[in-house]
Amino acid sequence: MKPATVEELIESNLEDAEATVTHARDKHDEDHLAATVVSPAFEGLPLVQQHQQVYDALDEHMTTDIHALELSTYTPAEYDDLEADQ
Q1: Residues near 47 by beta carbon (within 8 Å), at least 6 away in sequence
Q2: Residue range 39-59: average pLDDT?
Q3: Does domain 3-85 bear CATH number 3.10.20.90?
Q4: What is the chain's Cα-based Rg?
Q5: Which of 14, 23, 18 is nearest to 55 (CA)?
Q6: What are the extents of the domains in the chain?
Q7: How confident is the model at residue 36 (pLDDT cuts 50, 70, 90)?
Q8: Which of 16, 48, 73, 86 has the smallest set of CB atoms within 10 Å of its CB?
Q9: Cα 82–85–86 angle (5° rounding)?
Q10: With contact defined as beta carbons under 8 Å apart, do 18 and 38 qualify?
Q11: For residue 77, is pLDDT > 70?
């Protein structure tokens, strides 16, 4: 599955999400992807529940089209802090 398609799925199925999806580094398989997702929907949720929201947004694609997904999730405030530190 193309990274841009995965971005569209996440952004259309997760509240106010901004997703950046690329092929995972050091992987030679096009089905290994890496995603950074920023959404206010993650506010107050533990990491496991944040990741579950992304998996839910991708629905059956997680079992049929995407072999592996390296996932980083942030609230907008967390992402702004991360960007400020760099």
Answers
A1: 73
A2: 97
A3: no
A4: 13
A5: 14
A6: 3-85
A7: very high
A8: 86
A9: 95
A10: yes
A11: yes
